Amino acid sequence: MDDGLKQRIIGAFVLIALIVIFVPVLFDENRVTPVDRATRIPIEPEMEKTEIVEVEKPVIVEEAPKPEDAFIPDETKPQTLREEEPGLAANGLPKAWVLQLASFDEKKRAESLRDTLLAEGYDAYIREVDTSKGKKNRLYVGPKLDKNALIKEKEAIDEKYKLSAIILQHQ
User: Fold this and answer.
1) Where in the chain are the domains?
2) Where are the alpha helices (DSSP H) in 28-62?
3) pLDDT tens, residue by residue, 19-34
4) 98 and 113 Cβ atoms separated by less than 8 Å
């Protein structure tokens, strides 16, 4: 083949290749996007300036007592029971007291302990409450009008079940 013909064919392929590459770029309108010149940043709010006052060190009036001199209660002394006068609560019902034993995530565990307490003769019940940590099942014993009787039950239940129950006013 003639050298001039070869050069013309190669030149034609190069031109066709360039046209295939650059013509779609020239006619593609979606490729060029206009710039939005409006700002979306809000105007800076006006703020009041405040002075920071230097804090004074506190003056120590007296030193704390040494640990050997501190008051230590006698743990062998029995706690005296407070006598609660029977009466009416603010809602018009008699004052009554309950013993909150525990809070359970699982209702089955609460029901199991409740059933054990019922079998032993305690008036036990469960209430489902909403807390900041989700739903809990609280186990109660009571209510009783005599707070001192409930305190004695608390001591027996705490010892037997290794709990630390709390006494609350019944609502």
Assistant:
1) 93-169
2) none
3) 998 888 777 766 666 7
4) no
